[in-house]
Amino acid sequence: MYADLLEGIFQRNDLADEPARAAHLRSLQPYARRLWQSYRQPEVIIDYAHPKTQEAYLLRYFPFYRWPLVAEMNRLHDNGWALPRNELLEAAFFGCGPCPEIIGLMQHLVNVGSPTTMISAQLVDSAAESWAYSRDLVLEHLTEPAWEPRLVDYVPTPACLTKKETLASASINGCHFAVVQNCLNEVPWQHIDCVVENIMSQFARLAPGAIALVIDRSNYPATSQMMRKMHAHAKDSEYIVPIGVEEPERSPIDCLGTLSNVPEIVTNNLFHRHGDIEPNDWDTNGLIFSKKINYISMAFQVGCAAA
After folding, report:
1. Nearest Cα to Cα of residue 133 among 31, 49, 34, 25
2. Per 3-state DSSP, what percentage of the chain is helix, strand, and coil (rounded to 5)?
């Protein structure tokens, strides 16, 4: 997967020879550092519009962000909370950027032997138009090959989690699955209650029996607070049932397996792996792959009377 993603970036930039490819990766270093620095702030503010920012995101975060969804959906399935075994599965992804979640969904469906042959995905993101560059690259080089000969369809919708009226424009009514992943850390404190209300109102539009999953990195206090508020909202609801306890579930994802497949041209020019020999011609500060992802999650079933 990582090699396919990298090849997509090289093709988009018409980079055919090794020196040009290495130089391009080195040019991504300042964009990658800015992402890292932004994510270390308690309130994350990032402009994803520049293609090089998106390329840095794809190479550092995208391959790893499919795994939390796979882990959580496999765990839910093992405990009796399964997606419908439909030929067409309709899904909604909120704040998804280039949507690593859809790769995770595909992997889960394969893991459980699902008969699904087509995924129709609503991609709801405030920067949906900006992310078109990465989204198209992922569709061409990852999603379609991974799901072949099955079918996948994307429908991007520009909509902000703070704006109920724009969220209403997303065609998610009757979807079987919804995911909010790695975007709550970009919600300003003053909008927490509004976003919780908006997300839960969107979940209520899903099909009866649908599963809704909320996942985010674990080191943001506001994110944990929002998940607790979602659980409380669901407990008082007649149409959404919380799955699990009211405290967000905390789990780690080991990245070492994926990191072992990162090509040397990346580790020699852009991102460093723990344990590798330190390069002596560039500063690795802010450019070191994480060995694991610590995340929190919460799940809901929609369209059922509360117990």
Report:
1. 49
2. 40, 20, 40
